[in-house]
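Consider the record:
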Amino acid sequence: MNNTKITTLTRVLLFLSGLGLLAVLCTPMWRIDLQAPQYPEGLKMFIYANKLAGDINIINGLNHYIGMKALHADDFTEFTILPGIIVFFSLLFLLTGLVGKKRWMNSLCTLFVAFDILAMIDFWQWEYNYGHNLNPDAAIIVPGMAYQPPLIGFKQLLNFGAYSMPDIGGWIFIAVGLVLVSLVIFEFRRGRRLIVQKANLPLLVILLMTFSLISCNTEPTPIRIGRDNCDFCKMAISDNRFGAEIVTQKNKAYKFDDAHCIMAFLQSGKITKQDVAGIYFTNFNSPHDLINVKGVFFLQSPGLKSPMNGNIAAFGRKDTMESILAQFKGNEISWENMQK
């Protein structure tokens, strides 16, 4: 059964995926953003298949004081072999589409997924060594402190906030992998004749559902202090304890620096209730966490002194909110009352 022919549409999509992988050679695969009060514009590092780019010299200068090794592309063997691996997979996608055999596609899927897993493990190991192997004679030494960047997401490193995420090339890799897995599943079900009428979705629908994992994700995005502006008052967001965010059904994020601003924005009618996929508030006690409004406890107090005088803080737990009442005299207010 593994020698059966795959459909024409599957072959076309394999061809397109192979060509798409070539774009990874000239686009950044990953990025790490660093933010700190002394760098309000932020520092960026872009990782390509064969080089590093961005504010590398500044980052190396800062890392020297805490004993981290300088970043040089020549020190990474991966930059020598990765372009060849990408070209290899691109040609293998094209050849598999040309041959049109299910066995070839299954083997390609196994190799591609295995490579993606090994690549992430290698990236984590690099980050671990980079953040833990410190010069004992560094000018600044914090006992027990390591500076390993996050594999993906956010991590606080002293006064720097580090964001790590895929860039254009990385998203292409993810999209190609999801398409390939979807094609394998589709061809497996088609060959075994196990698709019942209810589950017999056209291939294009399956692919659209797959891509929706990327393009229609309605999770909130981190609020970048000093870089993001409030979508209502247009001021730079400078105090992450009072931030808020609206995510729409189309994955557009509106960010705010104060409860006053998000309420005014909602009342302005710029978006309808039907457009809203989620509303989130910054956890006052953990400013880098965004909590869905459905699980938020609000404290209103003039002592909070938020940026636009909304003077409302959000908490993920009621007991946490109550424990802070001794410092900020005020009262609990519900989300419903805030909207009146």
